[in-house]
Amino acid sequence: MNNSILLRSAFLFLLGIFFSVQLASAQDQQEKKVIQLSGIILNADSTDAVAGVNVYVPKKGRGTSSGRFGYFSMPVLEGDSVVFSFIGLKRQTFKVPENVDKDRISLILTMEIDEIALAEIEVMPYPTEEEFKQAVIALNVVDPMSISRANMSPEMLLRWAESMPASGEENFRYFQQGQTLQNQDLYGPRPLRLLDPFAWGQFIRSIKRGDLKSK
């Protein structure tokens, strides 16, 4: 019986403290003035806007983020600590002043790069230096020049050339030829080179010059 009375008394005591804290916090927030905090966030050189910066009041559940041009705007209370954080940039905190005459505050905030210097790390897959040396000696190293000579052989180059797609210049040339043939078809049938006297004249002159023999 005594234990139940003690537990009930302790529960009522803690419940009274909880409601007292909540009431004091609510009264404190009602007394504080609401201020519209706005501004633009720039990089360290003030040349580019920083988008996506987290702007929030810790433990208050209020926050926003900067837009495409680095602009942000959010309601805050007098005395709030507003945190600005972004990956790769140094975190900054702005303290909203007390007893502000106006209901608006404008900021131009610059954020610097957060440079983290790490100590040199040596990564080795072998526990000891001796085992590493033994592994290097046991390697079966292939001469790189032999691989290069095999890749540069005429047979290999011909195989690669046959499997390669047409270049941009070749595609453009084929396209131009197709356009020319389409334009010729608009004005009549295509000429037959076997009946062209000029072509026969060029062919006879090439025979006299011995062009076919040289080939």
Automatic annotation (TrEMBL):
Range of residues in the leader sequence: 1-26
One Pfam family per UniProt: CarbopepD_reg_2
Keywords per UniProt: Signal
InterPro entries assigned: CarboxyPept-like_regulatory
Name under which the protein is recorded: Carboxypeptidase-like regulatory domain-containing protein
